[in-house]
Amino acid sequence: MEDRGAEGGVTRAARRVGAALRALFGAGIGAAPRRYPDGEAFRDDVLARYPFTDAARALLRTVRFEVRNLGAPVGGGGWYGPEARRIVLEGIQDEAAVHELAHAWADLAGFYQEREPGGPPWPTLHRPFRAAVRAAADDPDPRFARVRFLAHQYEHGDPAINFPGMGENDAERFAGLASGTMGDLRLMPPALARYYAGLFEGAKVRKCEGAKVPGCDGEPGGVGRC
Hints:
- The chain has one domain.
- Helices cover 42% and strands 7% of the residues.
- It has 9 helices and 3 strands; from the N terminus they run H-H-H-E-E-H-E-H-H-H-H-H.
- It has a 3-stranded mixed beta sheet with strand order 1-3-2.
């Protein structure tokens, strides 16, 4: 997302958290470099290779998508908001593309519920989503270790890398978890995964065993713990 003063510092620090995540869990979030004639070809390839919903793919294909270096998988980039409807990446890195596409989807699909005082002229806050991220930071299930690590960094910060936490920056929370999992909602607790249901396939991540439980896969309510 485009840097804006103090928020830009949080954004940069959040990306350092992503680097720490890759150091812990391996770099396997991205594909081998391919040849692309332009940025939109790269965008469409990313949309095809990761589990975006059909509706999200259709919406995100309306976004201008530019890549400064089509020959190298370097990171970095920005989403310039719903008025400009433009993404610019430094290179053809999958993680950066998924991150900025998540920013774009959240703004264009109306994910956020409130405007931030002194923030941009469109909503950027989603307090129930933020509460779900906070809960994920303490989820002991080993299947969600990657998201637990990220969520803990987002909610509590990390003095070792001079990262104060996300504060009220729900936009970076949302995009950071999208690219931190590369759309694999099995890596998220169900109570958090449901907020990504419009962006990624697979929000119903658990099957119920034994008695039927409302909120579990196949039951009304969609996502929940069995």
